[in-house]
Amino acid sequence: MLITQHRQTYSLTVSKIKWGGVILIPPPQRKDDFMDFFNNFCYHEPNGNQKARFEQIQKCGKTFAISIDLLCPDSREKSLAMTKLEECVMWANASIARNE
């Protein structure tokens, strides 16, 4: 079975997958899993208004980060809050990039 994703063709066989010259053994069990791998681990070029939406999410994240920095004492908890906020912004942007 041949699968085309982002202008590249990948071959899927029962015993192995050839992915851009790399053979993956064992292959994902379902074609949907295989397609998830392609979607999750590739570059998603912004289209339409995605870039503006990414920037809006980042702007909101920066505003909240400044609030955390000003209002919270330096501590492990503050560091964790900042890390989780970075993750939040990343996952929000990934939801746009991966699902549109």
Molecular structure report:
The protein is an alpha+beta fold and 100 residues long. It has 2 domains: 2-40, no CATH class; 50-99. It has 3 helices and 4 strands. The chain has helices at residues 31-40, 50-71, 76-99, and strands spanning 2-5, 8-12, 17-19, 22-24. The protein has a 4-stranded antiparallel β-sheet with strand order 1-2-3-4, covered by helices on one side. The protein starts with a strand and ends with a helix. The model has no long low-confidence stretch (mean pLDDT 80).
Keywords:
single chain; 100 residues; alpha+beta; 2 domains; four-stranded antiparallel β-sheet; 3 helices; 4 strands; 15% strand; elongated
